[in-house]
Amino acid sequence: MKKKNFFLIAVVLILIALVVNAFFIFRSVNKYKKGEESYDSIKEIAKKETTDTKEPSVDFDALEKINPDVVGWLKMENTVIDYPVVHGKDNDYYLDHIFDGTHYTFGTIFIDFRNRPVFEDDITVIYGHAMLDGSMFKSLEQFESQSYADEHQEFSFETREHKYRLEPFAGKIVDAQIPFLELDFDSNEDYLKYLQGFIDTSTFKSNVKVSGSDKVVMMITCSHDFEEARYVLLSKVVEIS
C-alpha cells in the first residue's frame, strides 16, 4: 500500500513539473512572439519605395513620429539583423524598452549615449541583446566561426542623410567585468594599437584594413560562453552615399 501511495505521489509531482515547465515554455515563446511582431510592424512602417539608390530607403519621418531617438537603420542580409537604431540619454532605458517605448525584454538596438551623432567618433558603440530565439544581436556570436565571417562580410547602416557599409574585421569574447571599452585616444598610434589588440585575438581573420583615419563601429552583445561574457564585433565604416 505504501509503495502504491509513493508511486501516485511521484506521478503527481512529475505531472506538476510538466505543467509548470509547459507554462514557462509557453510564456517564453509568447514573449518572443510579441517582440517579433512589434519589430515586424516597425519594419513595415519604415519601408520607403524608391528606385534611386542614393535616396533613403527608410522612412525616417514615420519612425521619428514613433520615437524621436531614432538615428539609423542597421541591416545584414541573410540574417535577422534588420532593426532601427536609437541614441538615448543613457545606456539603461533601451535595455528593456522596445522602439515604441513599451517596457519589454527585447529592448532596442542603441548607440552608447557617450558617443556623438552617428560616426563622428573614432569608435561608435552599438549594443543589442542576444535573444535565445536568435533575434536582435544573437547572430553576432556566430562570428566565432571563420566560415560564417567569410559569408557575412558587410552590414548596411542608413541614416536620414547617408548610407554606409560596415565591414567586420575583428571580433572576440571579452569579460565585461574587465574594462575593455575605450572611446578617446591621444593619438592615431594609440587608436591603432587598441584596434590591433582586437585583430590579434579575433575569432576570425579578415582582409579588411583599417587606418588611423578610419571610423569603427563596435557592436556588443551578451555571449553564453561564461558569466558576464560579451561578444564584441568591430567593423570599418565606409560611406557609400
Topology record:
Blueprint lengths: L1 H45 L13 H7 L3 E6 L6 E6 L21 E3 L11 E5 L18 H6 L3 E4 L4 E13 L12 H13 L15 E7 L6 E11 L2
Parallel strand pairs: 2-3, 4-7
Antiparallel strand pairs: 1-2, 1-5, 3-4, 5-6, 6-8, 7-8
Describe the structure.
- With 241 residues, the protein is α+β, with helices and mostly antiparallel strands.
- It has a single domain (60-239), classed as Sortase (Sortase, Chain: A).
- Helix content is 29%, strand content 23%.
- It has an eight-stranded mixed barrel with strand order 1-2-3-4-7-8-6-5.
- The relative contact order is 0.13.
- Residues 10-29 have low confidence and may be disordered.
CATH C-level class: Mainly Beta
The chain-level structural class is alpha+beta
Oligomer, anyone?
A: single chain
Determine the N-to-C terminus distance: 81 Å
**Helix/strand order:** HHEEEEHEEHEE
Helix content: 25-40%
Number of helices: 4
Would you tell me the overall average pLDDT? 87
The CATH topology turns out to be Sortase, Chain: A
The number of domains is 1
Largest sheet properties? 8 strands, mixed, barrel
